[in-house]
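Input (structure):
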């Protein structure tokens, strides 16, 4: 004979409590948002006017009404790298790669998303960068793009992008042109020309240096010649005799043994005979 299992009866109040607790946990999980480091958030009011532009929420834990949604975006400085084909001033196609540093305005994040959408980089930043790059690169020759004008071009692109994005709640901080790729034949021709120009500058420098050294030596020699001429003109026969006598007197005071013959030397100067 089979035995009956005892029945477990939950009180109706307990079942309702469990259901309420589960619903409360689900509701709470949908009503809490954690915004990470370097991020900001704005509320999308489903039953209201959409994106609330009055307040931007910072990092940390936040409670949101379950019928609303927190839109979280990075608000720290960030960068995007892109590659595009542009035309130089003479119509040559050039492939350019670069990096842009930008930063959304924290206090105006709601206005940025409301007016430009959540994908504001694609909707706002990319078109501004592409238009500025094509406009600026179109002012220069391939040689200028490849060598001498990189810094100038970066600043001009930055200025133009900042002008386009003025009052658009998105700030561009820096533009870096990393690489300019030309057709190989054009690149080789430019590199050859630059090498020849460098060699010419080095030759001119060596030539200028040698010319300056020759001029220096000429001036030095002329100075010595003038000095010798002045010295020779000042050394009369009488002065030489007096200096010879003075030197003889000094030598006669020396302790070394010697014989001085007065008036027997050339020009009447004394002769000194000695073993030292």
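Output (sequence):
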């Amino acid at each position: 004979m089979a035995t009956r299992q005892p029945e477990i009866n939950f009180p109706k109040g307990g079942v309702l409590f469990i259901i309420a607790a589960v619903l409360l946990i689900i509701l709470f999980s949908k009503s809490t948002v954690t915004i990470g480091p370097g991020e900001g958030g704005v509320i999308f009011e489903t039953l209201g006017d959409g994106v609330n532009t009055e307040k931007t929420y910072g990092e940390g834990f936040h409670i949101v009404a379950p019928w609303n949604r927190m839109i979280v975006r990075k608000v720290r400085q960030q960068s995007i790298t892109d590659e595009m084909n542009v035309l130089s001033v003479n119509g040559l196609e050039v492939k350019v790669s670069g990096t842009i540093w930008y930063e959304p305005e924290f206090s105006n994040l709601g206005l940025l998303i409301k007016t430009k959408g959540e994908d504001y980089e694609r909707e706002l930043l990319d078109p501004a960068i592409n238009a500025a790059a094509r406009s600026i690169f179109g002012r220069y020759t391939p040689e200028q793009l490849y060598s001498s004008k990189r810094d100038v071009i970066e600043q001009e692109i930055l200025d133009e992008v900042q002008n386009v994005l003025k009052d658009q709640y998105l700030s561009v901080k820096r533009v870096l042109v990393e690489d300019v790729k030309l057709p190989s034949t054009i690149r080789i021709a430019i590199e050859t020309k630059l090498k020849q120009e460098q060699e010419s500058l080095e030759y001119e420098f060596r030539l200028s240096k040698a010319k300056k050294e020759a001029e220096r030596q000429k001036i030095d020699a002329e100075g010595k010649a003038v000095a010798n001429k002045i010295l020779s003109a000042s050394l009369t026969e009488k002065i030489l005799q007096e200096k010879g006598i003075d030197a003889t007197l000094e030598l006669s005071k020396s302790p070394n043994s010697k014989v001085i013959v007065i008036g027997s030397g050339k020009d009447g100067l004394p002769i000194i005979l000695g073993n030292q």
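Notes: Residues 237-274 form one domain. The longest strand covers residues 93-104.
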